[in-house]
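Q: Now give one record:
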Amino acid sequence: MTGSKRPRLFYGYIIVIAAFLIQMIGWGVVQTFGVFLNPLLDDFGWSRAMVSGAVSVNFILYGFFGVYSGRLGDRFGPRLVMTVCGIFLGLGCLVMSQIGEVWQLYLAYGVLVAMGTSGVDVVLLATVARWFKKKRGAMSGLAKVGAGASMFLMPIVVRWLISSYGWRNAYIFLGSFVLIFLVLVAQLLSRDPSRKGLLPDGVRDEGALVTEVSEAGLTLVEAMRTRQFWMFCGVSFCIFFCAHTLTVHIVAHAIALGVVAMTSAGVLSTVGAVSIAGRLLMGNVGDRIGNRKGLLIGFTVMAAGIFWLQGADTAPGLYLYALLYGFAHGAFFALISPMVADLFGLKAQGTILGIVIFVGTFGGAAGAFLAGKVFDLSGTYLQAFLICALLAVAAFVILLLIKPVRKA
């Protein structure tokens, strides 16, 4: 390419760092709700199904608002959208610290926190996909390491905050930190390389050519006319059903088995720590062997981990489950966005990804509520976890049947 050269520091790496930090803080708020679960139950005497219902509302609205966040991100860029998301997320945590009635829980966590997290995946992963082509899987995985880091660190931090200062003060700390930190980091974001006269991966070229390359692909309407779109939405439903059910309830499950609270929180932290390796490794593997094959590996490992969970009733057994599931969890959330880009291109990446995740949130909402209801009726989560294992197998089969989209 005549006259092309790479800058000393490709700004795409700044985008990845910003996405990493926002993922770490944004998902940290969501992934630690399981640590707050028992304190809320103890203070208010609510049923697990009632509290889990707020999680289900949160997840459905997260997906619903995510569709609009993705569309707004495609149109106006990620900086504005993620700034607004940061404000809502911080306010949601602050309102959580003051709740006293069930409807307040549903408003604070179900609505405000959902609005705050609606762009954390859709907008950020769509932005990373625009900035990279050759390393799209690896960079998406690196950005998603932020979510894994939050799953590793935040349960321990929040458990300590609750033990030392109470759950209300813990939410005040989270809300204040989010309002300041997330909003500041959002100012580093930029929609795509064309804004800086670059092609994906950092090659300089004419602005018109950059825009043309960046916007190749199907529109949302064209994508929705394909069988592959709805099949991958089904895969997304299974992923989020399993992920949200296990993330929300695994700490309470461990405590119900007689594992002490701090050790139980450590199971969730281990999932987060191992998911970091899953995101990094499988992001690179997806670039090399294909994102579909990477997802198939993820579902194989996930099914093995959840079937193992059926008989794991001690701390060592739960930690072995965390090793298996954590790896699969990381693989999924590193490869969803690159898989969407592979199938449908980048023209409407944020909007299409938003719809795919929105469908998935119905799975997450159903799983979180169902697991709470199952425990209320039977005193155990095992039946709910078995459903997760069967859905992992179903998603594996659907992925095997997905063929490349025929583009004109």
